[in-house]
Design a protein that fits this description.
The chain has 159 residues and is α/β, with parallel strands linked by helices. The protein has helices at residues 2-28, 84-91, 93-100, 124-127, 132-148; strands at 45-47, 58-62, 73-76, 103-108, 155-158.
Length: 159
């Protein structure tokens, strides 16, 4: 149990640091002009063609104005009953990416797949290798790696 307590303490410290960094970004981030395919209020854009998409997911991506060389990629998975846009707005990932120069992928569940908007990690067809939602997300990641030269050793997933 001692190890668990230490891990919990470390997690609390990281959460505090992340909160402070988001606060700094919010105070110092200058507004940027939208890309031609984005509306002024959009924090991400939808990508329609990224693979066979066997999981029937939607792909949203945020690419900062100043992208780092061989940038990292964060795959940000929304919760049940959330959209990618709601998750992006609530978490601050796009603001942090704008500040630090990394890309954020926001896969989005469709209600046609799950009425509650949840990712279906509990269905065998959605977690089987080269199939379902997991493979759709894999295809999204591969599309971004090829298009933006993402550092394959710095791909992270968060929920």
């Amino acid at each position: 149990m001692h190890g668990f307590g230490k891990n919990l303490e470390n997690l609390g410290q990281l959460q505090s640091k992340f909160g402070k960094l988001i606060g700094q970004v919010t105070k110092t981030a200058a507004p940027r002009a939208p890309e031609p395919h984005q509306s002024a209020s959009a924090s991400s854009r939808e990508v329609g063609a990224f693979g066979t998409n066997p999981g029937n997911l939607r792909m949203h991506i945020f690419v900062p104005a100043q992208l780092a060389a061989a940038p990292p990629l964060v795959v940000a998975l929304h919760g049940c009953s959330q959209s990618a846009a709601e998750y992006a707005a609530g978490t601050g990932w796009s603001k942090l990416a704008e500040h630090l120069g990394f890309i954020v992928l926001y896969p989005e569940q469709q209600t046609a797949n799950n009425a509650n908007g949840c990712f279906s990690w509990f269905l065998p067809g959605d977690v089987r290798r080269d199939d379902g939602e997991a493979y759709s997300i894999h295809q999204m990641v591969q599309h971004i790696v090829a298009a933006y030269g993402v550092d394959r050793t710095r791909i992270y997933v968060t929920v």
